[in-house]
Specification:
The chain is of the alpha/beta class and 414 residues long. The chain folds into 2 domains: 137 residues, Aspartate Aminotransferase, domain 1; 254 residues, Aspartate Aminotransferase, domain 2 (3-Layer(aba) Sandwich), CATH 3.40.640.10. It is built from 12 helices and 15 strands. It has a 7-stranded mixed beta sheet with strand order 2-8-7-6-5-3-4, with helices on both faces. α4 runs parallel beside α5 and α9 runs parallel beside α12. The longest helix has 20 residues. The two termini are 20 Å apart. The structure holds pyridoxal-5'-phosphate.
């Protein structure tokens, strides 16, 4: 079984994660535990907690500053350009819905059927959903063909947005984001990256990847308290109706019903009192990750992932789900089934008998998960695979001992 490389220097205490002794959390892809950096930042700010953008008092001014600094830090972490907007949202779902509501009239959105529901369902009618490709090169080819056809058959002046994930929440497999961005731009389309599962594992930079927008969730990036982010080009966002009409989103409101001038910039879409603690927590983790040796962290996660996958492969009654094949690069997420056993029951037994938390179901990616379950049955020739799956996912603070406990528990369920 692959052993873990030692880190040259231990990650800073800011990236320790909080947990409960004895409980093994292998469900980071759903919600990651809280990093010390996030908890400390919130604790430090709480005595000062007051209104943002709405008060002249010292507390309020400090909170406004903390909120806007958080925006800057998160934007820098995600490679926002000087002209980009960094809009705080509740999570990735909210960020992608905001973008969906900001699309110019007549925009066609092109996605793949392998997406999380958050990147499938917000898009307007008439969107194009491409089949799940067999490999990353196929994704690039299929997108090029679809955009060529779309441009031939529709008004070339109408906008096209490609919406893709960076890492699958079902398999952890990486999608060829930079190549897809190149194809999109070659055809005059824009591209949004759903980085919910990518950003917790590797650096994600909007300008390096050359994507037009990207979305993340704080709670998957070790920063609870309910903040997410949409980063990207300003023009569509500034021209769109405000996502949340109300206080803070306006620059002028007159007496007549429609006498409103909406703000431009992030404020246009952040109506209402903002989530200061969420933003500050997220920024604290972004800053801690910026200071960390992310190459070493990723190498450690990959070794742990290899240990987990090798251990699962050695269990004859366990079958892994995958889209692109066994050797495709991936982050620390593995979905699998236990042949002949209901996945919800296995998850419940892991929790009750072994204090191990994993996810079961179709992972809010029903089209992909169902397809991969069918593929697993065909690949193995087994007729006793259950209709839903299990998912184990790891990250900061995960250990070989935790992985081994899961493997031992599954071994006992043959
Ligand atoms: N995109 C992907 C790839 C995800 O895995 C998830 C959540 O699991 C989402 C989007 C939605 O994230 P949230 O529930 O934080 O909005």
């Amino acid at each position: 079984m692959p052993s873990l490389p030692a880190l040259a220097s231990p990650p800073s205490a800011a990236l320790d994660v909080l947990g409960v002794p004895g409980e093994i959390n292998l469900d980071y892809a759903a919600t990651a535990p809280c990093a010390r950096a996030a908890a400390d930042a919130v604790t430090e700010l709480l005595p000062w907690y007051a209104s943002v953008h709405r008060g002249a008092g010292a507390l309020s001014r400090r909170c406004t500053l903390a909120y806007e600094r958080a925006r800057q830090t998160v934007g820098d972490f995600l490679g926002a350009g000087a002209d980009d907007h960094v809009v705080f949202t509740r999570n990735t779902t909210d960020a992608l819905n905001l973008l969906a509501r900001s699309l110019p009239a007549g925009t066609t959105v092109v996605t793949f059927a392998g997406e999380h529901h958050a990147n499938l369902l917000p898009w307007p009618r008439g969107s194009v959903r491409l089949p799940v490709p067999a490999n990353p090169a196929g994704a690039v080819r299929d997108l090029a063909a679809a955009l060529t056809e779309l441009r031939r058959d529709s008004n070339p002046a109408l906008p096209v947005l490609v919406a893709v994930t960076g890492a699958s929440n079902v398999t952890g497999e990486l999608w060829p984001v930079a190549e897809l961005a190149r194809v999109a731009h070659r055809h005059g389309a824009r591209i949004v990256l759903d980085a919910a599962q990518l950003a917790p594992h590797v650096p994600v930079d909007r300008r390096t990847l050359d994507v037009d927008y990207l979305a993340i969730s704080g709670h998957k990036l070790y920063a609870p308290f309910g903040a997410g982010v949409l980063v990207g080009r300003a023009d569509w966002l500034d021209a769109a109706p405000p996502y949340l009409a109300g206080g803070g989103a306006t620059s002028h409101v007159g007496p007549a019903t429609h006498d409103v001038t909406w703000a431009t910039g992030p404020a246009r879409h952040e109506g209402g009192t903002p989530n200061l603690l969420g933003a500050v927590a997220l920024a604290a983790v972004c800053a801690a990750l910026t200071d960390a040796d992310r190459v070493a962290l990723a190498a450690r996660e990959q070794a742990l992932l290899a240990r987990l996958r090798a251990g699962l492969a050695a269990l004859p009654h366990v079958v892994e789900l995958r889209t692109f094949g066994p050797d495709a690069p991936r982050v620390g997420i593995v979905s699998f089934v236990v042949a002949g056993q209901d996945s919800a029951t296995v998850a419940a037994r892991l929790a009750a008998e072994h204090h191990i938390g994993v996810r079961d179901g179709l992972f809010c990616a029903h089209p992909l998960a169902r397809r991969l379950l069918d593929e697993a049955a065909t690949r193995t020739g087994r007729r006793d695979l259950p209709p839903t799956a299990l998912r184990a996912s790891i990250g900061l603070g995960s250990t070989a001992a935790q992985v081994d406990r899961l493997l031992a528990a599954l071994a006992g369920m043959a």
